[in-house]
Amino acid sequence: MIEPMAKIEIIGLMEELDSTLELLQQAGSVQIDEIPTIEGEEHKSVRRIHLDETKEHLLSRYEELLLTVSDILEILFESVDEKTPLDIETQGKLKKFSPDELLNHISSISREIRRLSRQRRNLLQDIESAQQYESLINTFLPLLEKAGHVEEMEQIGIILNKGESSVISVLKNRIEEITSPKTLFFHQQMPDSRIGVFIVAEHKELPVVRQLLGNEGVAEYHIPREFRKKNFRESIESIRNRIENIPGEIDRIDEQLLNTKKSNGALLRFIFIISTNRLSQLRILQRLVRSRYTFVISGWVTLSSFEILKKQLHKHFTDRVYVGIVRLNELDFLHIPTLLKNRGIFRASEILTKLLPPPKYGNLDATPFIAIFFPIFFGIILGDMAYGIALLAIAGIIKLKTSRGSLFSDIGTVAIAAGVSTVIFGFLYGEFLGDIGQRFGIKPLAPWLHRESNIKIILLFALGLGAIHIILGFILKIYVSIKVKYTKGAVEGLAKIIIIMGTILIFSQLFFDFSIVVRYGGYALFCTGLLGVLFTEGFIGILEVFSLFGNIFSYSRIMAIGLASVIMAVVANRLAEASPNIIAAFLIGFFIHLVNFIIGVFSPTIHSLRLHYVEFFGKFFVPSGRIFEPFKKMGGDFT
């Protein structure tokens, strides 16, 4: 359901502004909106609150502090959501610190962590470079050994990608022009199909060679002197030793970072939270207005929490701060924020509706409907007891391993509902790993529920379910239209329901040989519905009636995807039976069933959501709402 909202204004004495914002942030129940003002000399009695020089300085220092702590936490791979708290005494001490004092407090920690991070980054670059040097020297080793003693000369390596071989002749000619005959130029294809180029030149010629490479846009690998030995084989040995030693050095740095994380992680998280909260207070000031002695805060609060907020303000400030509900004008109605409030599986199913923008305030929350129909559609499509049991097992593990209310916990809840539905429809279809269950006496509850041999009936069932779903969408449209006093919307919804009912009667008479009166009744309903559509939408609406039938036919995917799943399961069983031995049979059957299960989880999910988002929600759901974002503290009780 959509939580009822109230627009409020809070008026108080200027000296209580900071304390009021602190209380509102602690309460976390008010969304503070910007109050429009007219700037100018004639309107100076009520003006927007601007940050003075002191608060501007605080803002910049807290931004610097937040950036510093964020960088450190990122280096430590530390999550701000980690629940391990800082001791109360240290919390109290840190809360009294200014941003400059907090920066000084963590300066030594910051320097040490950044130093270790730089070392680690340099070591990773070293190992990459050393591997490149090793590859280059290995490629040219036979040629270099023939060239004689070149260890004291400067050595430059170049690696060219495929398709860049045309650069080689240009480089060789230009180097021969600008250097002495002692300069050596080798090129050869490397094991990874790239082209290696090796240049050996005297030290005095190194600047012109580098300038040439820079002009041509070629990146060089300059072989460091630390890797140069009496011969290239010793150089390779030196490089390999370095490559072997670097991981140990990285491990030692990682151990130091881990120890720093253990000893200072909670401290850094707390400072991050303090900085975020205080920045929020400073930035929110610019949404408020003031007179000479008072401030005004305008915003939104859930109706259920208004009285609690009122009592909190009265308790802390008595008559120095006042809060009241404001009567809404037409503009306010366009900007009411939306907060969804559901329980159980309905709350968990909000992960499916939150893939869309929130509903407009005053519209319907579509969550309960997707919570009911999504598992049904999923079960109808997958419809295999073994697959349903497997899904329940996976969902159960997810629920056990995740905290209540988290994203993955909600996914687990929705998956459990889908798994139960899959088991139920698998029982109705008589399916357990395709047709394996039939060999153990598992049969469809009714002959027409056997999906392989009753495609027409299953198709009609899917289309009938689609018609019911679409009709429900129009019923909800009528309800919403009446609620907002939009008569044309209600008439349009009713007219389209009548068109669908008329169509059902016409085809029922044709397929089931009912009395001709049924068909004529269907014609009458169809024409009546068309008149209603013509009245509300004009001739464009008549053309859109065809899309209405397209919506219903779209539900045939329920039959088609489900049929593909059961056929794939049967194919798995047949291929396993045809295998020469029991191990091969098991592996083939297991692999194909596993693939079918994975497809059978994702495909029904995608198509069930599509039927809701496109065919169903389009009838009544208006996803143009504004999310309710209360001004609140980060960290909760932790701060």
Task: Please give a handful of descriptors for the protein shown.
639 residues; single chain; 3 domains; extended; alpha+beta
- Summing up helix and strand content along with how strands pair, one would put the structural category as alpha+beta
| Total number of beta strands | 12
**Form type:** extended
Count the domains: 3
Described by strand count, sense and barrel closure, the largest sheet is: 6 strands, antiparallel
Strand content: 5-15%
How far from one another are the termini? 31 Å
Q: What is the radius of gyration computed over CA atoms, rounded to a whole number of angstroms? A: 36 Å
- Oligomerization: single chain
Describe the fold and architecture.
It contains 20 helices and twelve strands. By secondary structure, the protein is of the alpha+beta class. Strand 8 and strand 9 (294-302) form a beta hairpin. Helix 13 (367-382) runs antiparallel to helix 20 (582-616) and helix 14 packs antiparallel against helix 15 (407-429). The longest helix is centred in the middle third of the chain and has 53 residues, at 232-284. The mean pLDDT is 84.
